Amino acid sequence: MGEVYFYHLTRQSINEALVPLLKKCLDNNWRVVVRGTDLKLLEALDETLWEGPGNEFLPHGLLGGAHDSDQPVLLVPEGQVAPPHDCLICISNASVTSEEVSLAKRVCIIFQDDSPSDVEHARNQWKKFLDEGLSAKYWDQSSGSWELKAETLPK
Question: Count of domains in the chain?
């Protein structure tokens, strides 16, 4: 059974928060799918990851390429089928099912404080997982660094 981590962004943009998170996933040798509802946001993220901070490069692709199944990080619009992965990261109100949680090592739901729809969507996902007996962790960065603020244990 995978873990679900909720990341409440109060000090960073999604792109700023994703880069270190993706690096940690790659350090664990995980294959990652980043799922989003906004294709333009995924395309902007694609550009950000190509440029990378400094001279660093994060290997990745946008779904639809010839080597999608080989990409360590694949950006996938919601509703599209992704190849097998270890970690699923949902942004821009992308949804995840309990079955997907059970198949992944980790699911991350990243949401922005300045977006009421992001916050509401994350609350609904939290409640759904709680009702289904899944474990979840809520991380907040309002103090300046990431802090675990809440945790549910599996039933």
Answer: 1
Token pair for 17: 């928060």
CA distance 11 to 140: 10
Which residues constitute the domain of residue 90?
Answer: 3-152
- pLDDT, tens only, 7-50: 999 999 888 899 899 999 999 999 999 999 999 999 989 988 88
The structure's pTM equals: 0.93
Rg (CA), the chain: 15
pLDDT tens per residue, range 64-99: 988 998 999 999 999 999 989 999 999 999 999 999
CATH number at residue 108: 3.40.50.10110
